[in-house]
Structures are given as structure tokens and as C-alpha cells.
């Protein structure tokens, strides 16, 4: 009996050894340091004296923070819907007309494989004051401008982000679309439903769970746009594309650890809320089958 | 008929998406003189506008030869990239695969909470954790070494999450019958989990390769010594005056990514889908 009990007990937590190496590393390199940042957000720059919410107040009053967060918000609001709609349209055409095995999809994924760094060269040649784009425009007698040092920089940033992530989202949508039972469409076709009716009453409702998941994921991933923004324009880009990520980097360089910690906590809270939403949708997806 | 038009539309769009890649390959096959001639307005502030040709007028491999034979610093950076990427992926295999299996199929106290922590950490952008990472690496005296890039990346939680999704889909009945036969949890993991979840493991590696071959932020913050830099950080620092060189360096950087992409396209697709949509 005793032996059997011990056996059951040992079996109960048989996974601990499997996750232990990962857990130790994650704790050392991610979790513990992050807790330290939360602590620092309530202390002065040396990290010793407790200052309450002072750092948060300073951060919210900094004009650079206001500019950066409104730009980031603008970026997310413009870019994510555009990206989602465009990729859904392409995914729809691909799956409806050509099946989900189409090779064409891979062409849209290629930008993922292109190192951001090497594409910067193309951007510079394309959008410089005497670049290709202005050259083409000049042939039609349209006056060009310095695209990167103007509010159009924001448009270029949005465009690059969509270019880079289009394929990724096409694949996500395709996975969602192929999961919808074919029989539903066949039944609708028998009833003579139009394309729009089928889209409105079959595709959309069945995509709902996937739609929520993809939107939240797209939002969370959009914080990674910094890589493009940095390479295209450096540390101090045009005001229109000065994002939170630039601000973080500049504070880091100035060693304003107090402000940086507080801002990091603010961003984490927003992301944490996003994740709660995401988990809710994942649970719904689970239940809906 | 409508189908043909749609197909054409998608093809045109796909071609547009691929223009930048074509531009790089095109430019890399031109000689230095030709590149300079076309891009002089951008490179040297000459009058007029930059132009380009769909095909090089005088195709040559001279730029490649020059880069591969006469620039030792390029080789250093190339090997830095190879070393960083391979060691990170190896580390993820060793620690991540068992962890994903543990989370997906085994009993662990507080599993739900721990896994949620992994999901949160996976979605935090680098800028949020940059400071904490920096302080830890400083305390461990790892700054300005390759370990400063490798170790935090090895413990990235995204591959664990991705492989978890694949391991989750293995039918319980297979594991149950193995258990009845008396197989221990390690044997089950090695003989059943790893082979049946192999597409998930490959997916994680393909996505990981594209990510780590492309590292920008981490080396920028953690490596001051330029001789430790990976290729991805060297490229943007080639001035426009050396455009010919930049073209070739870009293409050489692009090639490993493309190889992985074409060899693992199917897995890439599966991995992307699994990261968001439950099967």
C-alpha cells in the first residue's frame, strides 16, 4: 500500500523535471529581472529611495511620451485594420478559387525571409529626395519631396509593416477559413445564395473566434515594428514616426532608468490586458467545437 | 473568366511584394561602375534622379568576388551570425522541447498559471524587457559577450508555446497504450512525443531561424564591441557610397534565409497557423 501511494505521488508531478531547465532559465533571464523593473518604477534613478507614483507622473507629463504614445496608437489604429482586411481578402480569393495548397501564398511570405537590414537599402534608394520614386514622378511632371523627412514617413512605415506581415496574416486567415465545414457552403449553394450572402452569413460568423484571436495577436505584435522604424530612420526619425520604441531606446541611452521602468510597466499593463482578452477568445474557440 | 482575372490580380500583387528582393539581386549582379552610375544622385548628391534597370547592362560577379575574398570583416560578421543563430536554436531544442511536452502532456503543480506566465513573456516586446535584461546581464558579467545574446534568446518562451500547440494534438490513446506497456514518461516523450510532434519542432526552428538571423535590437544594446556584431547589424551601417558592396552583402545575408524558407515553407506555414488558431 505504502509503495503504491509513493508510486502515485511520484507519477502525479512527473512533468516537473521536463520543464525545470526551461523554468530556471526563464526565471533568471525574464521573470526575476522583470519584477525588478516593477520595483524600480517606484524608486528614484539609483533604485534605492521609494518615490511612490512620482515616476509615473513624470512619464505621463513628458511631451515625448505623449507624442510617442499617440503616434503608436495612430499606427496601430491605421495599420492593423488595413493589414487584417487586405490579408483576409487575399486569403478568401486564394482559398475559394485555388484551394489552400496554392504556391502563390508563398510569394507573400517571402518578405518574412528578407533580413530587414538589407531592405533598408531599397527604401533609401526608393524614397530619398533624388530617389527612384521622385524620378518616376518627375517624368509625369509631378513634383517630388523628401519622403522620409516628412509626415509621409508615417505612411512608408505603415506600408513597410503591411508588406512584411501580409503573408503571415494570409496564412492565419487561410487556417481559419479551411476550418469552416464545406457542407455549409454546399447547402447555401443549393439554396442559390449569392457570394455576399455566403460571406455574410457563413464565413463571418464562423470566423468570429479566429478573427478576435488574430486581431489581438496583430495588436500585440505591432509593438515589434521598431525594427523597421529604426532601420529606416535611425534614432531620431521624423516626428510623425517617433514611436514608443524610439523613446524607450533614447531613455535607455540616457540611463533614465526611473522613467524607463515606469513606462515599461505602463506598456506591460496594456499588453497584459490584451493577453487576458486573447486567452478569453482562445477559451471560446475551445468551447465552440 | 473571373477566376483568371483574380489570379492575375493576385500574381501582380505578389510580384509587387517581391520587388525589393528582385532589386537587391539585380543590383548585386551589376558592376560597381554601373551601380554608381544609376544611383549617383542618391549616393553623391549629384543632380537628377536615381534610376535603375530591370536587368544589369553588364552582368558580373565581380562584387561577389570582392566581398568574399577581400573583406575579412564580412566573414567575421557572417560567422558571428551563424554562431549566434545555431547556438540559440540548439539551446531552444534542449530546454524548450521537454518543457513544451511537460506543459502539454504531464502533471505539473500550478501548470495553468506557469503557462500563462510563458504566454505573457512571449508577447512582451523587447523594449519592455530591455532594461531588466540589461541589468541581469550586467550582474552576471555577460555584457559584450555572445552569451548576452544567446542565453536570453534560448529561454524565449515562444518556441515552447508553439511546440506545445503541436504536442497537444497527439491523441491521448497512443500515450495511454504506451503507459499500459509500462513505458516511463521519458521513454514516451522520446519515442512518441518527439517523432509525432516533429513538425511542430521543425516549425519552431524555421520561425526561429528567420527571427535570429535577423537580430537587431539585442546586439545593438548588449554588444558594444563591433567585432562581435552579427551581419544583420553590419548591413545598415554600410554607407550609400558603397552601394555596390551593400547589394552583395544583402544578397549573401538573404541566401541562408531563403534556403531555410524554401526548404521549410510548409513547416513555416504550419507554425504560423498553430501560433494563433487551435486545430
From TrEMBL, chain B:
<keyword id="KW-1133">Transmembrane helix</keyword>
<feature type="transmembrane region" description="Helical">
    <location>
        <begin position="243"/>
        <end position="263"/>
    </location>
</feature>
<dbReference type="InterPro" id="IPR035906">
    <property type="entry name" value="MetI-like_sf"/>
</dbReference>
<dbReference type="Pfam" id="PF00528">
    <property type="entry name" value="BPD_transp_1"/>
</dbReference>
<feature type="transmembrane region" description="Helical">
    <location>
        <begin position="115"/>
        <end position="135"/>
    </location>
</feature>
<keyword id="KW-0813">Transport</keyword>
<comment type="similarity">
    <text>Belongs to the binding-protein-dependent transport system permease family.</text>
</comment>
<feature type="domain" description="ABC transmembrane type-1">
    <location>
        <begin position="78"/>
        <end position="264"/>
    </location>
</feature>
<feature type="transmembrane region" description="Helical">
    <location>
        <begin position="147"/>
        <end position="167"/>
    </location>
</feature>
<keyword id="KW-0812">Transmembrane</keyword>
<feature type="transmembrane region" description="Helical">
    <location>
        <begin position="188"/>
        <end position="210"/>
    </location>
</feature>
<dbReference type="InterPro" id="IPR000515">
    <property type="entry name" value="MetI-like"/>
</dbReference>
<keyword id="KW-1003">Cell membrane</keyword>
<dbReference type="GO" id="GO:0055085">
    <property type="term" value="P:transmembrane transport"/>
</dbReference>
<protein>
    <submittedName>
        <fullName>Carbohydrate ABC transporter permease</fullName>
    </submittedName>
</protein>
<keyword id="KW-0472">Membrane</keyword>
<feature type="transmembrane region" description="Helical">
    <location>
        <begin position="84"/>
        <end position="103"/>
    </location>
</feature>
<dbReference type="GO" id="GO:0005886">
    <property type="term" value="C:plasma membrane"/>
</dbReference>
